Amino acid sequence: MTEPAAAPELTTLTIGVLGGTGPQGKGLALRWAAAGLRVVIGSRDAGRAEKSAGELAEQAGLAAGNDAISGTDNAGCVTRADVVLVAVPWDAHDALLTSLREPLAGKIVVDCVNPLGFGKQGPYPLNVADGSAAQRAAALLPESRVTAAFHHVSAVTLADLSITHVDLDVLVLGDDRAATDQVRALADAIPGVRGVYGGRLRNAGQVEALTANLIAVNRRYRTHAGIRITGLP
Question: Would 188 be classed as within a structural domain?
Answer without folding.
Answer: yes
